[in-house]
Specification:
This protein has about 240 residues and is of the alpha/beta class. It has a single domain (about 15-245), classed as Rossmann fold, CATH 3.40.50. It contains seven helices and seven strands, in the order E-H-E-H-E-H-E-H-E-H-E-H-H-E. The protein has helices at about 25-35, 45-60, 75-90, 115-140, 165-185, 200-205, 225-230; strands at about 15-20, 40-45, 65-70, 95-100, 145-150, 190-195, 240-245. The chain has a seven-stranded parallel β-sheet, with helices on both faces. The longest helix has 26 residues, at about 115-140. The termini are close together. The structure holds NADP nicotinamide-adenine-dinucleotide phosphate (NAP).
């Protein structure tokens, strides 16, 4: 596991957006960031799941979160711009954005890939990440120092049979991260990507239905890297793909 000690209140006063905050790794990241003092903005497509995370944060004594219901498949560029300016109006700036939401699509032989699923996967996993980044960066540049974190995968640097559009989308994610990191190298914005490694979530269960999830890391286990990249301790880290395990 990535070796980092998560200190109490290490995210105090930070405003952090988490996409896909309703379940899996994103849910755990939102809860963890709130526990360490951050105000979190919960973005996801299923409002009921976001409300459950909201309630849990309040019950744990965290700062009141904001909820942004948005389906990355249907959202327009204007939706992201409006969201970023609402964040700027409400909080003044954005310290962190964890771009975690993505879809698996289908695992299938390359020649059988359905065009609609290819298009949806590229839209959610690549185009939406680009539009989110483009819209959020001006609000992130208002922070003292800001951290933009993408989510890759083991199939994002080495292609794997049957992983089709998902694998290609994660290569693109790493490329997008590197382009933005290089462009903002001299600024207060750092840009990195996390490779979570095999983690017990619904997406993992869909990809590996026969696997015993009790043998895998839990979302909670992999939080040290997620916290490190949002804390000031990672201020000089940019342009990296880092493994959580
Ligand atoms: P998960 O439990 O399936 O969570 C995915 C999240 O993304 C959900 O909250 C989901 O929202 C959201 N989402 C999906 N499509 C969306 C859309 N169109 N608009 C808005 N939100 C959408 O998966 P996970 O395992 O936690 O995955 C988190 C990230 O880690 C992903 O980027 C994944 O590729 C990456 N990853 C995971 C593993 C692993 O082993 N788990 C390994 C490598 C990489 P709803 O719940 O509302 O559908």
């Amino acid at each position: 596991m990535f070796n980092y000690t998560m200190k109490d209140n290490c995210l105090a006063k930070k405003v952090i957006l988490v996409t896909g905050a309703g379940s899996g790794i994103g849910r755990q990241a939102a809860l963890t960031y709130a526990k360490l003092g951050a105000t979190v903005i919960l973005l996801g497509k299923t409002v009921q799941k976001l409300e459950q995370v909201y309630d849990e944060i309040i019950a744990n004594g965290g700062a009141e979160p904001a909820i942004v219901p948005l389906d990355l498949k249907g959202a327009t560029q204007q939706n992201y711009i409006d969201m970023s300016s609402t964040i700027a109006q409400q909080f003044g700036h954005l310290d962190g954005a964890l771009l975690n939401a993505s879809m698996l699509g289908e695992l299938t032989p390359y020649t059988h890939i359905h065009q609609q699923i290819w298009d949806d996967t590229i839209k959610v996993n690549v185009t939406a990440q680009h539009l989110l980044s483009q819209a959020l960066i001006p609000t992130m540049l208002k922070a003292d120092n800001a951290s933009l974190v993408f989510t890759s995968s083991g199939v994002g640097s080495k292609g794997r049979a049957y992983w089709g559009a998902y694998s290609v989308s994660k290569f693109a994610t790493e490329g997008l991260m590197q382009v933005i990191a290089d462009e903002y190298d001299e600024s207060n914005l750092r840009v990195n990507a996390i490779n979570p490694g095999a983690t017990a979530t619904a997406m993992r269960a869909t990809a590996y239905p026969a696997e015993d999830q009790s043998t895998l890391a839990t979302p909670e286990d992999i939080m040290p890297l997620y916290v490190y990249l949002m804390s000031d301790d990672s201020q000089n880290t940019t342009g990296q793909v880092i493994k959580a395990q």
